[in-house]
Amino acid sequence: MDNAVDQMTQRWLEAAGVHAGMRVVDIGCGPGTVAFEVARRVGASGRVYAVDREPRMLELARARSEALGLTNVVFIQAGFDLPVPEGTPVDAAVGRRVLMYQPDPVESVRQLARVVRPGGIVFFHEHDTVPVADPRVSLPLHDEVRGWLRDMLAGEGAHLHMGLDLHGVLEAAGLEVLGLRAEANVLTTRSHYPIASIIRAVLPRLVGQAIVTEAHADVDTLEQRLLEERRRAGASCVWELVFCAWAKARDQSS
Question: Which of 99, 98, 97, 41 is nearest to 72 (CA)?
Answer without folding.
Answer: 41
